[in-house]
Each structure stands twice: as C-alpha cells, then as structure tokens.
Amino acid sequence: MEEQVERMRHTLSHVMAAAVRELYPTTAFGIGPAIATGFYYDMDFGDVKVSDADLKKIEKKMRGIIARKCKMVRREASRNEALDWAKEHNQKYKVELINDLPEDATISFYDLVDPKGEVLFTDLCKGPHVDDLKDLGVFQLDKIAGAYWRGDEHREMLTRIYGLAFTTEEELKAYLAQQEEAKKRDHRKLGKELDLFCSSELVGAGLPLFTPRGTILRDMLNEFAQGYRVRCGYRKVCIPHIANVDLYKTSGHYEKFPELLKFVSSESGDELALKPVNCPHHSQIFASAPRSYKELPVKYLETTMVYRDERKGELGGLSRVRAITQDDSHVFCTEDQVEGVFGELIESAKDLYNRVEMKLRLRLSFRDDGEGYIGDKDMWERAQTSIQKMADKFQMEYYIGLGEAAMYGPKMDFMVVDALGREWQLATVQLDYAMPKRFGLEYTDTDGTKRTPIMVHCALIGSIERFMSVFIEHTAGWFPLWCAPEQVRILTVSDEIESYAQKVSEILAGIELEEPIQHNQLRYSLDNSDDSLGKKIKRATGLKIPIVIILGKKDEEAGEVSVRLRDGEEKVKLADLTKFIRGRAEKR
After folding, report:
1. Averaged pLDDT for residues 50-73
2. Count of alpha carbons within 13 angstroms of residue 390, beta-carbon side
3. Which of 586, 529, 532, 540 is nearest to 563 (CA)?
4. Cβ–Cβ contacts within 10 Å for residue 50, how many?
5. How far apart are CA 241 and CA 275, in angstroms?
6. Could you tell me which residues come within 8 angstroms of residue 5 by beta carbon, excluding any fewer than 6 positions away?
7. How confident is the model at residue 1 (pLDDT cuts 50, 70, 90)?
8. Which of 21, 178, 277, 504 is least surrounded by Cβ atoms within 10 Å, i.e. has the fewest?
9. For residue 115, cis peptide bond before it (omega within 30 degrees of 0)
10. How far apart are CA 493 and CA 487, in angstroms?
11. Of 428, 429, 426, 430, the residue nearest 465 (C-alpha)
12. What confidence category does residue 233 fall into, taking pLDDT thresholds of 50, 70 and 90?
C-alpha cells in the first residue's frame, strides 16, 4: 500500500471513530487500522445495538467533521500518562494495549482538532496520518461485522465497522462494480444453481456434500492436476484416514494441530486420530524397505482427504472446510536432485494455471523469529537460500513472506490472480530437511554410507474444495468444455424428431476429448420432454451447459444441427459435428 494512501485510510478510521463518539458517547474503542480497500475500527457499543442501517448516519457525521477543516495533531506521553488518560475515559481496551508496552515507552497520541482548538477525538496511535483532512480522497462506509477482541474467541465480541477509501471516485466505482460482480459469481450461490454441492446440518458445518455434477467437476480437476505428476514418474499410493497419535508426535504435527480429533480404540486401547496431513504416512511407505541411491528420487502421489478443525463462524461454502481433499505428492531425493524435482513442479504449475487462464506470481514463504518451527536455523538458512536460487533460475516473479513457512521448512506458494483481480494462495511446493530426520529415514549412498533423504511436498491445486471455490467464481460457472459436468445437451423441438435425435446421440457417444485430459468421454444428455423449447433452453442455460444442440424437422432435412453457444448460434453439418466439438474443447 502506498504511504499516502495508507495515511489517508488510517486517518479516516480516526474520523469515523470521532463520528461514533459524538453519536454514541459511551463507546469503548479497540483498534482502527488501514486495510487494502479502506479501513475499519473495532468498537464496543455496550448495550447499544448498531446495524448496517446506522451507517448512513455515521457517514454523514464523518462528512460534517471533515467539512470543519480539522487537523490531526500528534503529541507524546509517558506510559503512566497514557494509562491515566485511558482510565479517565473508560477505555479498557486502550488500557490493555498500553499495559503491553514497555515501562519506559514514550507513547504517541493523535488529537483530531477543529480550527477553534476543540479536540473532537483523541486516540492512542503511532500514525502516520494526513496533515489536512481535505486530502482524504473519496470514501463510504461499507458494512458491519463482529470481531473478537485481539482475535481471541474467548474474549469480547466487538462491532467492526468497515469503510472503503480510494484516491478517486473512479477507483471507488470500479471497486463497487467488482464487488457486485463478485456477488453474482459467489460460488455458494452458483454451487446451488448449478447443482454442484450441498450441505446438511446433520452431517455438520464445513463438511460439503458433492452431487453427481459436482463430483464430475472434482474428478476432472484432480485428474488434470495429477496428470502432470504421473507424466513425471510419480506413482500412486493409498493410506488410511486414521493413524496412531504417536505418528504425529514424531512428525511434530501433534503440537501444531492441538485440535486433532483423537479417540481411543475400545478393542486395542490404541490412541488414534484423524489425519491432518499425509506426509507422515508417506514417510512410512518410504521407510518400509531398504533404499538405495539408485532408486532416488522416490515419488509418491495421492488424492485424499485430511481433517482440520475450524471455528464454526469461519466455515463457509468450499473456501473453508473441515474435510480437505488434497492433490498431494511427496518426493524423497538427494540434495543434487532437489533442483530437478522443483523444476518439474514449477513448470507444471505454470502450465496448469496458464490453461485455466489465471495469472501467477510467487511467494517465497520463509520462517520468522517466532516459535513453532522444527529443525535448526542453519538447516533453515540452507533451505531458504536453495528455494530463492530456484525461483531466480526459473525466472519467477516473487516476493518473500516472512512467517509464512510450514513448520518443517520453507515453501514456494503460487499466488493466483482470478478474473476479478483477487489473489489466492493455491499451489505450493515445500522443501523439508526436518521430517526425514525425525523419522530416521535413510538410503544407502554410492560409498555404502547411510544418508538422510530430503523431502519435497507439493500440491498443484492444493485443497480441491478451495480451488473449486476460486474456479467457480473465476469462470462464473461457465466451465471450459473439458471439465464441464455436462458438456452437451440435445433439445428436441417435437416428438417427430426422435429418430434424428437418436442418430445425433450415437455420434456424441463416440466422441472423446483428448486435451488436457486423455480419454475424456463426452458427457451429454437428451431433453425430449414435453416442455416447450423455450423452457428447455432456459433449463440448459441455467445450468450453463457449454454446447446446446437444437433439433427440428428442418435440421433433419438439411442433415445438420442448430448449435447454441454462449457466444452465439450456428448451423453445423452432421458430418462435421465431431470435429466441431473437438475444436470447441481446444478453444479457450
């Protein structure tokens, strides 16, 4: 975020707080930062109920404050002076923030002062802010949400008011238009309209159920992603969905995932858990037999579910779930082989996301100085240097995200930009020196000595559920022909065309699409119901079927079909129908 834009948005959060203070004098204030599209402030209104209906009133008060030509004035205070101020004004959240600061800290405040010298609002803040409120660009209040104080679900629930802020009216309008388009593309809405997935309170939150149509889409996307690794020599494996808890204590995941769904077997007394990850299981397949350097790299792939708990309020649609399907893969290799393994996976990710028309950039996810990582710092430094060199070699645009690493090693996260310009983290390739050591994995080297392999983790689409949520919204439900749940639908104008419809069906039954999935048998249906042609077209269009073939008596007489596409209609000779459909499959 540009510094001036951040100053503008941060100042607006103070102006909003000042407006709220005038309207609701007993409000206690939390924090109010600038964010990517504007600003927000977390506030405790006590017994007063504030809703979206109150936003216009607050916004009007803000504009009145700005019209008074107020200024932001910085001043400093000692920690004790700051505490006295917070207690005097019944600002318990500010008291907590101040108490977290060092004893000898010098604390900055900002006063919002009008031309007469009256202080409208004072806030504990390190800045920066605009010097003059005339430089606040354009803004509007957006929505109200709940937010736990300091992100702790055991603390107070505060009211968070969001505002939008941009430097020009055009930018604001463009953002609002994008948001309207996003509502139309919401995967939860389209998932229901296109009959892709559903949910059940009896099954539970965050556990989506996929319909036949949705399952076809899942399978096509998974086969597409795993096909890259099959071509690079990866072999399928299969593991159970539960494991002895000791497996995760050895790997280090037991501490990472305290929400492991544990249970004790009444038959054996074993303490078992639903798996949150697959890598420890795959490590034991590698460990099941003596390994030689001649076998390396050993490459495993598997599409399987893992289970992780989430706060119920954060679960929604497919973007955040408790049962996560991963197109997972793990490689056990020597240090000399790491670059080749990474190279294959990088090129695969680039080609995959190019085919689904999403732009890519790279985040190198490195560790910070926090706790929770396994392995020594020298190992981490070596791994991070290696990953950065590979990003440079393969000419990937990247930035470094400190604190974004996996607990066992750094990773390359592929950040995908969708049709609405939103960025998502989907694919990932991770380098792991730590886990093979923790499990005592070995191979025999050329000189007969035992060495520890390096482990590479990779998911090209990551969570299939999350990828589907992005893909549905990216395409607005108009899927490419190769992965559409239903690719072609035949509509008859009347009963007298039945025999011709059967002839067209026989042609479709013999069509296979070869790109990007081999042996993709055409998926088609016939709607010969008694409904009017208009109703049949509406049904097919509602399901966003890519190719709709309409058959009437004149089509039969001419030996052709009327083809209705998203971008128009045309006549196709029956003899050319196979070629036409294969051509549409190749066209983006």
Report:
1. 92
2. 27
3. 540
4. 18
5. 6
6. 34, 137, 167
7. low
8. 178
9. no
10. 20
11. 426
12. very high
Element (DSSP H or E) covering residue 107: strand 106-113
Residue 132 pLDDT:
79
Identify residue 232 by its one-letter amino acid code: C
DSSP state of 453: P
Query: How far from the centroid of its chain's Cα atoms is residue 531's Cα?
Result: 41
Lookup result for tokens 């920690």:
79
Task: Look up residue 293 and give its two tokens.
Answer: 């350097």
What's the DSSP call for residue 116? T
Per-residue tokens: 470: 């992005």
Q: In the numeric block, which tokens belong to residue 234?
A: 């990866």
pLDDT at 19 (0 to 100): 94
Let me know: does 441 contact 332? Beta carbons within 8 Å: yes
Catalytic site residues? 279, 308, 326, 328, 330, 411, 457
What pLDDT shows up at residue 106? 85
Residue with tokens 């030996």: 559
The beta strands (E) that lie in 351-463 are given as 359-366, 398-402, 411-417, 423-432, 443-444, 450-451, 454-463
For the beta carbon of residue 310, count every other beta carbon within 10 angstroms.
Answer: 15
Q: DSSP code of 316?
A: B
> What's the angle, vertex CA 186, arms to CA 180 and CA 189, rounded to 5?
120
Per-residue pLDDT at 225 exceeds 90: yes
Instruction: State the Cα–Cα distance between residues 342 and 346, nearest whole angstrom.
Output: 6
* Distance, CA of 122 to CA of 124 (rounded, Å): 7
Beta strands in 206-293 (DSSP E): 209-210, 235-236, 242-244, 262-264, 271-274
